């Protein structure tokens, strides 16, 4: 049997998931022990239909641009194969004489990979399954952080700082802005929006986290209080947050959609909170919801993140060739003053379906901002220093005053 | 009387309005005929209260970073002074011995500047009023384009291309994306989203314009038709668009807010259209609404736009010193193969309260995309070539198929 390798991408896309793929391709190409290098189109969902491409046949021009291309070049999926579908997937893999199965994804993908590996083993098919971490949500356990997170954090840090300058300038007309960011269960992205803040005047002024409840009355008090101090307010809220009764904060508490994994999607909390601010505080408010733009921006990607994503791809191939099946590559932060990060391994089963929330020490007591410990943890992940913007000294010319 | 100069910023902020301010400051500082250089805080609204800063007293560090700082460093306003307020503003100007009044803004600001100039003249106060163009909406007449537009167009071109890669990769789960962009009356920004598209697979696939009605049934047919062809769809809609009955396309046809100029604001058309796509086409859809982020991004700003904004600032001071009152600086595209742009002048009265819509030849017959003439007009405005992203050849490996 040939030692063929297949790689797939799964779950929500990121700016750096193709850098991981590029790492896989570069390492696999350099390994004499690897014959065919294949790609699943749209992950295991495409594999079920035999949607496989030959990655050795792609043009040099395409391959050279892969690392700096956001999104998943192979296509992605959100698909949980059942037992029967897993068996059909294994048939396709056998037909292609695949020995190394690399799957780039988050918790759900780790679960799928783990089940495929177990079923292969049970049927005596020598398949080495290795997971490669990917999620902007930064919520995988056993890894210091997740490839994809640093880039969205950089995007949100810069964008929030910039949106704050807009709100500051428009304070006499539009004094309140709410920025809705991704993150349904964990507040890592919401927290990342603070990474550009240098002084009190800078945005954001308030951050709310899925790990804490948002009480609308408390939120309005917080907004009023910042407004009284600064004359304008930028608040960051996650795409899903519940109130103390456990109800989703939105115009309607009913989900608008439930996906194949049972994840429920709700109407925008920001749209609702803007209404409440206008109606109850009588302050004009607006919201920005960058949506998928936040996870796709290559100009705002973190070079550190791109480099680590690539590193994970290369490490995955090395581990697979060593026969270390059933594991996910992790990022391991080295001790010392200067930030350095290497890779390690964690069992796929332990990663699957588990979520790493923000630790309590990263959220302040009031539950409306991050702590300095979070900044210490996250600053190295967003790469190069952020732009420094000008702010005028606002000392009034006395003779101008009536 | 001293020959003092005052400058203010007004209306919605842009990524380059501070570049115009930097141009004013550089030219004013270089002119021996200018004594004091003052800034209005929050435009004429702040001026009413004597909120004026001495711009010669700002630090060299702040001034050096001004050109690359988005938003309005002096603060902005949306404020239409009445007759009495105009007189009070003139008193403040007299007290400061202002001879040159430079106001950076759009149509409404041109109107305010023009009225102030006329009132000053009537009372024998020698005040030279010059308008400097600024609006992301690109809807000022007499100028080839408006400083601010090229940068948002660049932002939307890159972001839409990237969001398209996301939708393409997620097609088996999330095949429809709607991107809601700014622009209530004119479709220049919606059109700008097309500037990154190189092939049919690239986003956007559909664009709608405030200049045309959006018929929801036709929109759904368009979405279905692109979906049938490509398997995914990215549509760009402006923040306000009406149906053939003249009703705003939104969950509710009632405005959520009406501003000081009588501009009405409505609920998100994208949120509503997403619901319709899901309910009536049974396709999962989501929307991105970058909001103020689109007009604030310095990393995605157009160098051409920044340069032209700066040029307008310098030209404004030169015209003011020549006593050319009651005029707005315009951008004039030079004839020839290579794009070059200089400045001209247009009467403020003619600019005030007038809107330049997209000409019919820039919108296709179906009203759902731009024409090549638009690309020819707009491509030079967005600066450096856009990133080229990789797309794999999707030829299937035959032996993988069941």
Characterise this structure.
Chain A has 402 residues and is of the alpha/beta class. Chain A folds into 2 domains: 4-147 and 300-351, Rossmann fold (3-Layer(aba) Sandwich); 152-298 and 357-381, Phosphofructokinase domain (Rossmann fold, 3-Layer(aba) Sandwich), CATH 3.40.50.460. Helix content of chain A is 36%, strand content 16%. The first copy, chain A, has helices at residues 17-30, 43-47, 60-66, 83-95, 107-122, 149-169, 188-192, 216-230, 269-281, 293-296, 303-321, 348-351, 372-378; strands spanning 4-9, 37-40, 52-54, 98-105, 128-133, 176-181, 206-207, 233-238, 257-258, 264-265, 285-288, 327-333, 341-347. In chain A, the strands form 3 sheets. Chain A has a 7-stranded mixed beta sheet, with helices on both faces. A 4-stranded parallel beta sheet of chain A has the order 7-8-6-11, with helices on both faces. In chain A, α1 packs across α11 (303-321), α4 crosses α5 (107-122) and α8 (216-230) crosses α9. The longest helix of chain A has 21 residues, at 149-169. The model of chain A has no long low-confidence stretch (mean pLDDT 95).
């Amino acid at each position: 049997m040939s030692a063929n390798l297949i790689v797939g991408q799964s779950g929500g896309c990121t700016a750096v998931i193709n850098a991981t793929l590029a790492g896989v391709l570069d390492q696999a190409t350099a390994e004499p022990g690897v014959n065919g290098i294949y790609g699943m189109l749209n992950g295991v969902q495409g594999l079920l239909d035999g949607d496989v491409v030959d990655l050795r046949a792609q043009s040099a021009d395409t391959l050279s641009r892969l690392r700096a291309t956001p999104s998943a070049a192979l296509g992605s999926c959100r698909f949980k194969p059942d037992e029967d579908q897993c068996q059909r997937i294994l048939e396709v893999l056998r037909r292609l004489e695949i020995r190394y199965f690399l799957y780039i994804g988050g918790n759900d993908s780790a679960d799928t990979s783990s089940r495929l590996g177990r079923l292969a083993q049970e049927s005596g098919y020598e398949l080495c399954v290795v997971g490669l971490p990917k999620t902007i949500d930064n919520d995988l356990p056993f890894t210091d952080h997740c490839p994809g997170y640093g880039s969205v954090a950089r995007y949100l840090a810069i964008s929030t700082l910039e949106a704050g300058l807009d709100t500051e300038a428009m304070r006499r007309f539009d004094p309140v802005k709410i920025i809705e960011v991704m993150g349904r269960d964990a507040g890592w992205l919401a927290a990342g929006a603070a990474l550009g803040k240098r002084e009190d005047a800078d945005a954001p002024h308030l951050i709310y986290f899925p790990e804490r409840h948002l009480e609308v009355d408390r939120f309005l008090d917080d907004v009023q209080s910042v407004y009284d101090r600064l004359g304008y307010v930028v608040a960051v809220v996650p795409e899903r947050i519940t109130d103390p009764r456990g109800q989703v904060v939105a115009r309607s508490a009913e989900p608008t959609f439930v996906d194949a994994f049972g994840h429920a999607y709700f109407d925008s909390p920001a749209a609702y909170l803007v209404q409440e601010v206008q109606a109850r505080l009588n302050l004009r408010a607006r919201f920005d919801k960058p949506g998928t733009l936040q996870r796709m921006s290559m100009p705002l990607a973190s070079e550190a993140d791109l480099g680590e994503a690539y590193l994970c791809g290369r490490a995955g191939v090395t581990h697979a060739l060593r026969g270390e099946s059933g594991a996910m590559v992790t990022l391991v932060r080295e001790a010392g003053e200067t930030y350095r990060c290497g890779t390690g391994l964690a069992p796929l089963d332990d990663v699957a379906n588990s979520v790493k929330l923000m630790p309590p020490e990263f959220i302040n007591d009031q539950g409306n901002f991050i702590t300095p410990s979070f900044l210490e943890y996250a600053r190295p992940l967003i790469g190069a220093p952020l732009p420094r913007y000008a702010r005028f000294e606002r000392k009034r010319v006395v003779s101008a005053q009536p």
